[in-house]
Each structure stands twice: as C-alpha cells, then as structure tokens.
Amino acid sequence: MKFVDVNDIIRNLNNITSEKELSNFFKKYRKVQCIDITVVNYAEELIKGSNYEKGVMIIKGIYETKYLEYISDDITVYIILAQYYIENGDTEKGKKFLIKIANETTDNYEESLEFRGWLDTWNKYKHLVKDEIPAPICSNDKELSDEDLLELLLKEVHSGGYDAYLSYNGQYFERTLKIAETKKMNALVEQLQRIKSKFPNNTVPNNVIDIIENSQLSFNDEDELFYSTVCFEFDKIK
C-alpha cells in the first residue's frame, strides 16, 4: 500500500468534473492506504451540501469500478446509492442496495446507519424490502468473536475516529486490548494503552460518551496515527 498526502487527494477530487476524470483518479489512487476515509467523506459532504450530483457520481464510481474493495465504509456507499435510485424512479435498483446493507455489511446494520447519520433514510425506505432482509441484531444481543471486535474497532475508527468508537463501543475496549496483546499487535496495544491513560484511574468508563462530550479529551493525534500506521497491523492478521 502507498501513502499520499491527503491534501493532494482533495485537490485531485476538487478538479474532477467528469466520469472519465473520476476513472483516472481511481486508477491513480487505487492502492493508497486508507483512501476510503477521504473519498467517501468527501463525496458524502458534497451530497449533503454543495454538489449533490458530483457526490453521487463519485459514489457510483466507487461501486461501478469495483473500487469498493478498498472501501471499508461500504454501508454508506450502499445507502447513498439506494436513496439515489429510489428517488430517481428506479425502485428495483434501489432495493438491491437496501438488501446489500442488510445482507452484506454488518448484523447490527441499523446501529451502523444511525452512527453514520443515515438511519432516517433507511427508515424511509426499508418497508420496500421488509420481507427480503433479516432483522438487525443489536451489538449487545450477541457474543462477538475476537475477529468481530477487531473488525469493529477498525471500521469505527476509520469512520468516526476514537471519539466515535469509544462512545458507542467502549464496553469492548478492555477485551479488544487483550485480543491485541494476544495477537502481538504491538502498535495497537501501545495506542490503546495511551488512550486508557487519558481517563481517570487509567480506565475507560461505561459512561464514556458523557465524559468525552463534557471534557477536553481529544483523540485527533491518535486517529491520525491509526490511519497512517496502526491500521497496517490488521492486514497482517487476516
């Protein structure tokens, strides 16, 4: 995997005006580590803000060029495409992406959509596929395996940083730390230990979301380190 300055990626995205230019962008940056964070977030901001059509063009390009293999946040790609096709009259194609959300992303897909700010969109259209999808499972309704917990950390930190991971999955912190120690993921272990040290008594509390919201705690430096270095350890254990 290659590393590229995020500012260079943003500049290239800003200059894209056509599907051909987008295709060239994907070819150029296909093997850039953590590219998904930049590209999906960029497109999502356009869709929710200043340039809906360009944002959708990027998301469609991610899917149609099979660039999705480098995107960990597939659930956001699918919900955007579902909304786009349904609202433009192609309900059957939109339903296809709703079904993908339920069958191909995560068992607790409604929790994931809520965290990403897309639950209202899902609730608006889920009746279209209610007989074709499994009911979502809440994370606390099942026993997560070691692999599940590592994947949970990887996806949530990629999507929203450690603020989000700790706020919604802090109950798994200690067990995930022990798993990382067992698997000798030394960079992750060191990072999680540093994060623990930010809390009173060196313990991540159950009410972590309240503490984060009402304090000066910041994990921005750890987020950047995770994207640039720590996330590589996950590739080694697959």
Question: How would you characterize the overall build of this protein?
Answer:
The protein has 238 residues and is mainly α. The chain is 67% helix and 0% strand. It is built from 14 helices and no strands. It has helices at residues 6-15, 19-29, 35-48, 52-64, 74-87, 91-104, 109-116, 119-125, 146-169, 173-182, 186-197, 208-213, 220-230, 232-236. α3 (35-48) runs antiparallel to α4 (52-64). The longest helix is centred in the middle third of the chain and has 24 residues, at 146-169. The two termini are 15 Å apart.
Which short descriptors sum up this protein?
mainly alpha; 67% helix; 0% strand
**Could you list the spans in which at least 5 consecutive residues all have pLDDT below 50?**
none
Shape: globular
Residue share in helices?
A: 55-70%
State the end-to-end distance: 15 Å
Strand percent estimate: under 5%
Q: Count every helix, treating DSSP H or I runs of 4 or more residues as helices.
A: 14
Biggest β-sheet, characterized?
none
Total beta strands: 0
Question: Which structural category fits the helices and strands?
Answer: mainly alpha
Summarize the helix and strand pattern as letters: HHHHHHHHHHHHHH
Indicate the radius of gyration in whole angstroms. Answer: 19 Å
Q: Could you report the average pLDDT, rounded to the nearest whole number?
A: 86
